[in-house]
Each structure stands twice: as structure tokens, then as C-alpha cells.
Amino acid sequence: MNSRQAGALALFFAAASAAASLFVSSSVFERMPHVEDEFAFLWQAEMMGRGRLWIESPPQPESFLVPFVVDHDGKRFGKYPPGWPATLSLGAAAGAPHLVNALLVGLAVWWTYRLAARLAGHGPGALAALLTATSPMLLMLSGSLMSHLLTMLLAVVWTCAWLDLSAGDTGAGRVPVGMLIFVAGLSLGLMALTRPLTALAVALPFGVHGAFLVIRGHRSVRLHLAAVAILALLVGGLLFVWQWEVTGDPLLNPYSLWWSYDRVGFGPGIGPMPEGHSFALAVNNTRHSLNAWLHDLFGWPYLSWILIPAGLFALRRRPEAWLMVSVFASLVVTYMAYWVGSWLLGPRYFVEALPALAAVSAAGARAIAGRFPRAGARRAAPVIALAVLLAINLFIYLPIRLGGLRGLYGITRARMAPLERAHLGSALVIVHPVPDWTSYGALLLLTDPFRDEGPLFLAYSKGPDQDRRLMAAFPERVVYHYYTNDPWRVHLQPPEE
pTM, whole model, 2 decimals? Predict the structure, then answer.
């Protein structure tokens, strides 16, 4: 397969992955948030679309709960770093936030082809693009409003730029060294602005490689790497500027304002367990995440890893292959220090390693195929085997995995229909009862900022006394009481009164 044919195939796979992302977003997730993180991301994106990082806390802020949106010193803001909400705000401003991840997944698949083609050739590059485009962990995240597709794209772009820069691929017909420095530094810095712990995990193997280059390399290499590091630190350092703006303290992580124990590390006070986060808990979380990874990487139950050893053996004399794959190990080890595991939407903490694992797997497939005769029926055996694995994913595993996410936490657009059809106008609607956030999660989209400063205020009952104080704070609004277990009626007074 020549470069033109492989490139055309990779473009097709990139476009198909973007279309698949839109399908998952519409068919599975109904183009709406389902987990707490997504609600906070979308809230922040809507705010940033209006040019705001924070707003004044509303009266009785505990009655206007939005998951992971914090009230602190009279300010209301999301707890997440600004990189992804700022990116998502571009789609939110156009009324189509779901388009952002669809675009990012298409770009990520294309850059995976570029990375794999450099490593193993254009044919394996196209196969790596196909493996990435059909990956369940990719499609689940790309159909959501989660932040991981942005850092995955930044990670693969960072890797390509680093490899070109460290190899000195800047001659005639190559990318100018200044552009490589800019792309590498900006990519790593934006990763830090989006998912700081992920940026650290991705950077660690390259930091070791960079130290080796500084010791053994030419003076120009040292200057190039220093320029990359300075740019990355300048861009990533904006995280502290953002923290200072929203909290008043550049070193105060807003995560801790929602849950004081939401920190990285081990010991008492970290994580929700009384004894804190421990190595035993870290191993248990990692075991569950890796078990999900065995299936969700390529959708081959228990076998998604199967081509990686062959690829590493085939590329054993290519240091860049080991450098790329070490990112996966770095992500696994680094996230052991965080008390939360990842398996509901796939092993999302490891998705930044997907392009490298797809590239190595594609190299492994080519190496295995090369062991078979060039003529005769046996030549088709590895192609048939791979086709069977892909079919298992596309026609069995993916439909089951994605189908299990429909109506996640009971959040559906149908839950909004009763209040939408009530046409209550400029009203304050107090929702009863609220046993947990999922009972009102879907209703959040009916109110500001998700409805662009619409007339409806949605609040959540915190008891009669709190509700009376809430009503007194909005004397100009008609107050209705809404019960999630009786969704087709609204009340001017709670029935028990």
C-alpha cells in the first residue's frame, strides 16, 4: 500500500469516526450530559461562551445545585481546569457542544495514522487509524462531553512533534524547527491546562528521554528542548492564574472545594475512605480499570492487548516505539495515586495512550502476517483472523457496550418533557423530592445557563424553612412545586400543606 492509498484510507476512517461519534452522541447519550463531570463541563463552557470564568453566587446557593460547580467567597465556578471548558464553549456558543468531540476524534484518528506511519509504515498506519476509529473506549468518550478526547489529540500531536524534533527531522521538506518547538510546547501546556495529572503522566517518559538527549545530544538539541519546556511551562502555568482568578489563591485546587478529600496522593484525608487512600485501594482500582481496558481498547473481549507483544518484538530496535508505549505504563502508575478508578465510560484515564497502542498493534499485525507464506490459502489466515476480531467488536461488543449506557443514571430527554410542555414562563420551580442528583439531573438543562438565560429558575427543595427563604429571595417570580415521582403536575403549594 503506497502513501496516497494509505492516506486516503486514514482520512476515510477519520471521517467515519467523527460520524460514529455523532451517532453515539445522538442515539446513546441524546446530546446531553449524564455524569456529574459533564454537567460541570457544560456549565463552565456556557459561562466561558459569555466571557465569564465565574458568576456571583445566587441567593441560597445550596438550592441551585449543579454537580461539581462550586460556591466560594461569593463566586460560583466549575471545579475543572479551563482547557476543556474553553474548547467546549466553541460548540456551546453554536448551540452544538456535541460537535466538538466529534471533530477532535476525527483529528485524533488522522494523527494516529501519522504517528503509526512514521513508526511502522503507511499500511500499518492505516490499520492503526482503523483500530483507533473502532475502539469502544474512544467512541464512548467521543459521544460524551468528557475532556479526554482533547488530551488524547494533544498527546498524539505532542508525540509526533517530539519525535521529529529529537530526531532532527527538520531538513528540506520537513517541518521547520521553530514550528516543532511551538507545537510541542503548546500541546503539552494545553494538556496541563486541561488534565494536569494526565499531562504529568504523558510528560514523564519524554522527560527521561529529554534528560538523555541533554546529556548526550548536541548543544542545539539542548536549546530546542529548553524552548519546548519554557513554552509548556508558560502555557501550563496559566492554570495557576485561573485558580487565582476563581478562588483568590493560585495554589488552591477547586477540586478540594467540592470534596476536601479530592486530592492526589496517599494517606489520611485523601479519598472518601476513613483510612484515606492506600496502596491496596490503588491496586484494586487499577485492577478494575485494566480489566475494562482488556475489553474496551479494541472491543476484543479479553484479547484487545493480543497484538501488542508482537508489535513490540517487531519494533524492538526502535527506541521511539518503547518511548510511546511507556506512556501507557506511566498513565497506569500515575493514576494509582488518584483515589478514583475508571471503567464506567471505559478506562478513560488511559485513553491518551490509545494512538501508541494502536500503532504498535498494527505493527504486530504486519509482523504476524509476514510469518505466513506469500502465496496460497494460508496467506489469508491473519487477514481473516483480524477481520473476525473487528467484526466481533462492531457487531457484538460495541452494540452491547454502548447499549448499556443508554439512559445512564436514568437521565433522558423524556424526563424534561413534562416541565417543557408546562410553559411556566418566568417562574421559580422547586423540585421535590431530591434523593440524589440523578433525580433532577436531566431537569438542569431547562434552566440557565443551559437554556441561555431562559425564564425558568430550577431549584431543589432543602426542607420547608430553606424553601421559604428561597421564595423570599425571588418575590417577583411565581413559585411552583414539582415532584419527580409525579412528573405531569405542578403545584402552587406543596400538597402536604
Answer: 0.94
